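dumping these here so i dont lose them again. two proteins, back to back, each one seq then structure tokens. dont judge the mess
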Amino acid sequence: MGDFWPGNLLVVLDDKSGLERIYVVDWEMTRTGLPGIEVGQFGAEMHLLKRFHPEICGETATLLLDNFLREYKRTGDPSEEDMQWASVQFGTHLVILTGRVEWGAKN
């Protein structure tokens, strides 16, 4: 639980480099996790990609996250508790993982 991140996505582009399809995969273990934890994890990972690799992911990370959250809200019917867990997971992930992973040059 709490391991939904950009590495779990396979993206298919059309001949004009537009998004055609996204597949969600899990290379280790597939099971449904707690919705708030999964959403918070993905949001934090996308934020970090945008923050530390803006030249590669700046626009696409925002676009992907905005679309993900919009569709999740539309189809997943998240509860207030789910969103509280998402906020906690987002912040916890940033605090704990950001300083431990080589996200970019140390200035």
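---- next one ----
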Amino acid sequence: MLIAQEKKKNNIAEYVLYMWQIEDLIRANNFDLDSIQRNIINGFQETREMKEEIRAWYAGLIQMMRKEGIMQDGHLAFVNDVVEQLNKLHEKLKENPEEQKYREVYGWAKPNIEIFRNKITNTGANDIEVCFNALYGLLLLRLKKETVTEETTSAMTTFSNLLALLASKYKAAVN
């Protein structure tokens, strides 16, 4: 909860990836709030009151995930909404002739986006979804301590650069 609030305020792209990770943590704990308490919440160096707030936050996420039917996979609607907002901003920026830097960074990422789009099952995913899916996949590979090729690392850097610039533009637009 605390980390999510901070990321949402400061870097919306990191927030999306963090929330995807939280969804997976909830699934890994079988939607069991007591398991989440033992495995996650108790590890925080916070007051008892703050831990209760964090527990309530997880309970709310569990309830939403059940209600939205994303027990096995998928993402919370409010997180998908953020991704959609980012994609709308992305579309505006790449069409704006005054956004030369953004268009340049997107140009570096675009071939990698197309390559990755052809590797995923959701071929209708927009550019921003593809970048998020790729970076989240990289995170999972690193957590499993699997080898990542130099080519993949290079492609992921273009996605990171694009999302970082987009997150910066988003923050400027909402402030």
